[in-house]
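Researcher: Re-running this chain for the archive, since the previous output was lost when a drive failed. Same request as before.
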Amino acid sequence: MAVYKRTYKAYQGRTTPAWSRFMVLSRYGFSTLFESRPLTAYTVLCLIPFLIALVSIYLIHSTAAQALLNVRFGHGAFVDNVFFFRFLAIEAWMGFILTAWAAPGMIAKDFANQAVQLYLSRPLSRAEYLCGKVSVLATLLSCTTWIPALILFGIQAELQGNGWGWQNLWVAGAIILASLIWIALISLLSMSLAVWVRWRIAATALMIGVFFLLPGFGEAMNAILRTQWGKLLNFPYLVTTVWGHLFLTHDQLHSTGFNLIPLWSAWATLLGVCAFSVWVLNLRLKAREVERG
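Model: Regenerated structure tokens:
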């Protein structure tokens, strides 16, 4: 049959709601990430601290299990705010490795292969494109930070009883807020670095450099200028300072060299980095590319 004799009709089927279009990118982002067996294995490895913490909570409250395993916990062995602070710290650094590994490849390939213009030529805004990419990292990091931490909190509240959960409800709030600021920081920063350099290996190297080399420049600044404001270049230090106040462990942190800068400056720097990352992403995400010869 000749082409001109065919009758073409508009698509009459079910359409995707506008508010959930970014989830298409999320779905394919997850499928692409977990095609990598090493990444899948490392994601499972991130759950080991949760299992260890879960067993520890159970053993602390079960004298029968202690007798069976021939282990004894002293009077100082109990679950408190420091326990959850340390658990989140371990999971946060494991999540950092996961982000530095996975995030650059999620967005750098789109820029390297000129695919961003194809995405934005669809009924998809820059904000939706960014939400689709960041939601993948946010979900992965949530599954290794505040979600398992809240599960541990709930189990501890059930085993401890006597209103422990209500008395320590602020710990649950600290878990959520501390995890969200960490997830926002490393997700947006990794994405902005990947967009800026457009090369996966370089973006991963920059991410590692920002967290491990930049603090060295800050310490050199402190030594030369005899100040402590160089700590603002040390993102792990800033996060630990903020977390210490959220979990009310700032007194212990002060004895180990933390809390040398005001709390407001740590919050302002972390939020400023997140805002700057969003600005870079908005600047680099364009629906068209201009080639200059």
